[in-house]
């Protein structure tokens, strides 16, 4: 799991309106709309519910400790979506206790291993990796104007790639898995074989060969420059939740509106909507 740096997130809050407009242009939906699409929720109904849903974002000092701006950025994203969100005055145990005492509906918090949302009423857990994979797969479905029966290359078979592949299967896509560590791809194929369409999953062992062959890519690796510029074609559509972005600045210029990437926003939106279920 890539640990974010303050420099990765410090400009997110000030760019939420712009990024929301860019998503609208690329997918026809906003942050909230894409997250609702990912979880099969009606956006109008969700809009009525978010304002009264109180989320405490609790700083966690464990392990490598606090990332400056992390909690403030998560709260800013939640408020942009319409939630009643705040950063707790207290970290760790005290912050969790305060959320319960103030009758918050949910907590969001992250240590070095997991970033989760906890619904305090129904005791559900929203995991950032699962939500991120799901929401980026939904974004790809929207960019493709329906991914059903399309082949999609999923690069990276970790928790984010797994959630994305599972979501793509449920959208009727034909999933192709690729991972630098072949056993990881094999294991994921095995796990997904129980889902409809899972028995048709293909594994590509050569990344460059794979990228050249598929028009839809979900890039979920924790590596930069996963997709070399020379392999980016004019018809490629890429959803890239991987941090750092696996595409160079030049690659982004070639792709323009056919690339979706962010480092926190869409995953937080997915977590929040999944807490409302
Ligand atoms: O400020 C704090 O409360 C820190 N304990 C937050 C640590 C977040 C560590 N995780 C990450 O940087 C990212 C997550 C946002 C998703 C995957 N890695």
The 3D shape can be described as globular
The top level CATH class name of the largest domain: Alpha Beta
Count of all domains: 2
Broad structural category: alpha/beta
Along the chain, the helix and strand elements come as: HHHHEHEHEEEHEHEHEHEEHEH
Strand order of the largest sheet: 8-7-6-9-10-11
Question: What is the rounded distance between the termini?
Answer: 26 Å
Give the helix tally.
12
What is the helix fraction of residues, given as a range?
Answer: 40-55%
In terms of DSSP E residues, the strand content is: 15-25%
Oligomer: single chain
Q: What is the third-level CATH name, the topology of the largest domain?
A: Rossmann fold
CATH architecture of the largest domain: 3-Layer(aba) Sandwich
| Radius of gyration (Å) | 18 Å
Low-confidence stretches: none
Walk me through the structure.
- By secondary structure, the chain is of the alpha/beta class.
- The chain folds into two domains: 6-127 and 266-276, 3-Layer(aba) Sandwich (Rossmann fold); 131-262, NAD(P)-binding Rossmann-like Domain (Rossmann fold).
- The protein is built from twelve helices and eleven strands.
- The chain has a six-stranded parallel β-sheet with strand order 8-7-6-9-10-11, sandwiched between helices.
- Helix 5 packs across helix 12, helix 7 crosses helix 8 (159-170) and helix 7 (128-143) crosses helix 12.
- The longest helix is centred in the middle third of the chain and has 16 residues, at 128-143.
- It is globular and about 55 Å long.
- The structure holds ligand 2YC.
């Amino acid at each position: 799991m890539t640990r974010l740096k303050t420099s990765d997130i410090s400009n997110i809050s000030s760019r939420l309106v712009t990024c929301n407009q860019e998503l609208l242009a690329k997918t026809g939906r906003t942050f909230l709309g894409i997250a609702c699409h990912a979880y099969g929720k009606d956006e109008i109904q969700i809009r009525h519910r978010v304002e009264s849903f109180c989320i405490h974002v609790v700083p966690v000092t464990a392990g490598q400790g606090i990332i400056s701006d992390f909690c403030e950025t998560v709260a800013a994203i939640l408020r942009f979506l319409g939630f009643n969100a705040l950063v707790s005055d207290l970290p760790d145990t005290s912050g969790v206790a305060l959320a319960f005492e103030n009758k918050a509906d949910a907590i969001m918090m992250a240590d070095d291993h997991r970033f989760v949302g906890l619904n305090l009423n129904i005791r559900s857990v929203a995991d950032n990796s699962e939500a991120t994979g799901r929401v980026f797969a939904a974004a790809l479905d929207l960019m493709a104007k329906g991914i059903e029966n399309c082949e999609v290359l999923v690069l990276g078979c970790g928790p984010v790639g797994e959630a994305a592949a599972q979501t793509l299967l449920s959208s009727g896509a034909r999933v192709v898995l690729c991972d630098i560590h072949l056993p990881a791809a094999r294991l994921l194929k095995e796990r997904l074989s129980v889902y409809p369409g899972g028995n048709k999953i293909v594994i590509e062992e050569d990344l460059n060969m794979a990228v050249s062959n598929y028009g839809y890519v979900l890039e979920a690796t924790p590596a930069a420059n996963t997709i070399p510029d020379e392999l980016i074609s004019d018809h490629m559509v890429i959803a890239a939740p991987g941090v750092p972005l696996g595409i160079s600045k030049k690659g982004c210029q070639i792709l323009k509106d056919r690339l979706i990437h962010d480092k926190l926003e869409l995953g937080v939106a997915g977590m929040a909507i999944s807490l409302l279920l």
